[in-house]
Amino acid sequence: MLCSKDGEIDKIFHMDSIDRKILAQLQADGRLSLTELAERVNLSLSPCHRRVRALEQSGAITGYRASLDPAKMGFNFLAIVFATLKEGDRKAVRAFEEAVEEIPQIVLAQRLFGDPDYLMHVVTRDLPAFQKLYDEKLSAMPGVQHLRSTLVMKTVVQDRPFPLDLSGRDE
Q: Is the previous residue joined to 116 through a cis bond, with omega within 30 degrees of 0?
């Protein structure tokens, strides 16, 4: 069982080694044509297409997108912000999460067990832009008891593909 984005418990999609090969290839290059993908996983086109569709419909594949270089987009500043809420009831959590979704500079937000309640990755172009965002939006989010921030010195691993065990066994 896995927790999904909305906090619901999802069933694990059972897949064989071919499904894992398809996922590994698509993680490496989401722009592969179905023909190329079929060749790489040693399937004919129709069965490959059916499997990809099944993986999409099961939710194992959630979408396709381009990976962007934050610095080339002008985002040279990354902070990790921890938020602790005053109250942990459903209404407070919902209000906070709705506010988070409205701030595009928050590129990752995760609800945590324990204290703090949330971890957020925030990108801006520089420190003054972060300070303004912090003062005007982050600190004004509903239900916040306190925020703590730390600055990212260096990104060591980013968007690493999931470690698909092609043999089907967990390590």
A: yes
Cα 149 to Cα 30, 52, 128, 131, 169: the distances in Å are 34, 41, 14, 11, 39
65-98: pLDDT as tens digits:
998 999 999 999 999 999 999 998 999 999 999 9
**Residue pair 146/103 in contact by the 8 Å Cβ criterion:** no
Q: Which amino acid is at 7?
A: G
Whole-prediction pTM: 0.81
Residue-wise over 134-146: b if at least 16 C-beta within 10 A, else e?
beeebeebebbee
Cβ pair 122, 141 in contact under 8 A:
no
**CA–CA dist 108, 117 (Å, integer):** 14
Torsions phi, psi for 103 (to 5 deg):
-110, 100
H helices of the chain, in order, are 17-28, 34-40, 45-58, 90-101, 127-136
